Amino acid sequence: MPRIVISTLNARYIHTAFGLRYLYANMGTLQTDTVLLEFGIQQRPIDIAEQLLQQQPEIIGLGVYIWNVAEITALAAILKQVAPEIRLILGGPEVSHPPDLPQIAELADYIITGYGEISFPSLCQQIIAGHPPAEKIIRGETVALDALASPYAFYTDSDIRQRIIYVEASRGCPFKCEFCLSSLDATAKPFALQNFLQSMDTLYQRGARNFKFIDRTFNLKVDTSVAILEFFLSRMTADLYLHFEVIPDNLPERLKLAIQQFPPGSLQFEVGVQSFDPQIQHRISRKQDNAKTQANLSWLRQHSNAHIHADLIAGLPGDTLENFGHSFDQLFALKPQEIQVGILKRLRGAPINRHNLDYQLRYDPNPPYSVLSTADMSFSDMQRINRFARYWDLIGNSGRFIATLPVLLDEQPFVRFLQFSDALFNTSGSTWQIALKRLFELTYIVMTDSLCVPHETAKHVLEQDYLRNGEKGLPAFLNIAEQTLEKTGIANKRQQLLRKH
């Protein structure tokens, strides 16, 4: 039986715990006494506890994040009830910023803040040797990146076949955007490029095709980013998929030339725009050239096959509902395939917390700690934005309403979709568990009743999108049209198309 278990709860099965693999790779002589177990937040804490205790460990290490802190707290409480003799060690962003600690900290025997690749094995050695440290909170030790053992060998064949493979070519971030924990980093540090590419080649030869880079600033150093892109271009296959987080205002010509060579469906860029308001950008210490950002996003859409996932944040200090709408409209005009409307979260340790008093930032005390209201956006405003974000995922980001969306938004994307969102919620009473057929029916009702879109126009565009989705059965507004056609004895091309579906 292993003496040490390291574990966490992933948000979805397709995710892998990259941090745990780094811990395992760096356990040294304790690696043979260590086992890595992953679970999902959908599993019952009591069932997870049973599986952990079946290993009969002396030490359990748990990774705590904003997305799993509630479930990990429930798990830790069970472990402490039935096996209080086991030493419970916590790590991860949610417990790395004392004294701002969540409730789970009270259940821990030890907490390692920051990076744990060196400090976790050292702590385990001390406990096993019978000389546990007196202090509960241990500051994670950092070392040169080339001193760390590589985690990539510890992706299993099952991981490679079924899950996302997380990789990092660099650590840290040189920017100081206050909403992000990476603002606490001194700079970005690259891993040795040739060693990194050798690891990528090994993963590729094992069959890995879904690579998600967790670097905060992939395109910061053009030589490195071009080299990585060229590495994958030389190994291009129909199923290769790469995800990068990029700086929106830094797209040199050499990088553009490499990006242009990627075929459709192989490249996704996550682009953090967050806000186009210069005053807000200055307030949160975000350096962003808006003109270059807009030019680069426009170039990517016009001259590359990259899929653009662009982020905005609602609830930043000093932002208003109307002003956020201006940022949304500017971003929408650049035509990214996805606009992720995010809500400001209270990350423990993030510098943006210095604005809490001046801008009356009020956060949900429950994870993920989303902002509830600010001095400039009421609770009602934030609830409207929450619903806007959810419905935008269903309508704007899903790709299911290609013909409908231009009619729905007309010349005022934010104002019109906010009006649509309000009316859709009033009609449906829900933002979740809306079947696709029902969503089409509700969209027709709201477009014609609240947005005053002519009935025939709404039917025409919604019919195109509905048939494209290949759903069985007809939504109510098309059923009515079908019955009318049958009563009049008219059998036209449209009717035949409907019957086929």
UniProtKB/TrEMBL annotation:
<dbReference type="GO" id="GO:0003824">
    <property type="term" value="F:catalytic activity"/>
</dbReference>
<dbReference type="Pfam" id="PF02310">
    <property type="entry name" value="B12-binding"/>
</dbReference>
<dbReference type="InterPro" id="IPR051198">
    <property type="entry name" value="BchE-like"/>
</dbReference>
<protein>
    <submittedName>
        <fullName>B12-binding domain-containing radical SAM protein</fullName>
    </submittedName>
</protein>
<dbReference type="GO" id="GO:0005829">
    <property type="term" value="C:cytosol"/>
</dbReference>
<dbReference type="Pfam" id="PF04055">
    <property type="entry name" value="Radical_SAM"/>
</dbReference>
<keyword id="KW-0949">S-adenosyl-L-methionine</keyword>
<dbReference type="InterPro" id="IPR006158">
    <property type="entry name" value="Cobalamin-bd"/>
</dbReference>
<dbReference type="InterPro" id="IPR006638">
    <property type="entry name" value="Elp3/MiaA/NifB-like_rSAM"/>
</dbReference>
<dbReference type="GO" id="GO:0051536">
    <property type="term" value="F:iron-sulfur cluster binding"/>
</dbReference>
<dbReference type="InterPro" id="IPR025288">
    <property type="entry name" value="DUF4080"/>
</dbReference>
<dbReference type="Pfam" id="PF13311">
    <property type="entry name" value="DUF4080"/>
</dbReference>
<dbReference type="InterPro" id="IPR058240">
    <property type="entry name" value="rSAM_sf"/>
</dbReference>
<keyword id="KW-0479">Metal-binding</keyword>
<dbReference type="InterPro" id="IPR036724">
    <property type="entry name" value="Cobalamin-bd_sf"/>
</dbReference>
<dbReference type="GO" id="GO:0046872">
    <property type="term" value="F:metal ion binding"/>
</dbReference>
<dbReference type="InterPro" id="IPR023404">
    <property type="entry name" value="rSAM_horseshoe"/>
</dbReference>
<keyword id="KW-0408">Iron</keyword>
<dbReference type="GO" id="GO:0031419">
    <property type="term" value="F:cobalamin binding"/>
</dbReference>
<feature type="domain" description="B12-binding">
    <location>
        <begin position="1"/>
        <end position="134"/>
    </location>
</feature>
<dbReference type="InterPro" id="IPR007197">
    <property type="entry name" value="rSAM"/>
</dbReference>
<feature type="domain" description="Radical SAM core">
    <location>
        <begin position="159"/>
        <end position="389"/>
    </location>
</feature>
<keyword id="KW-0411">Iron-sulfur</keyword>
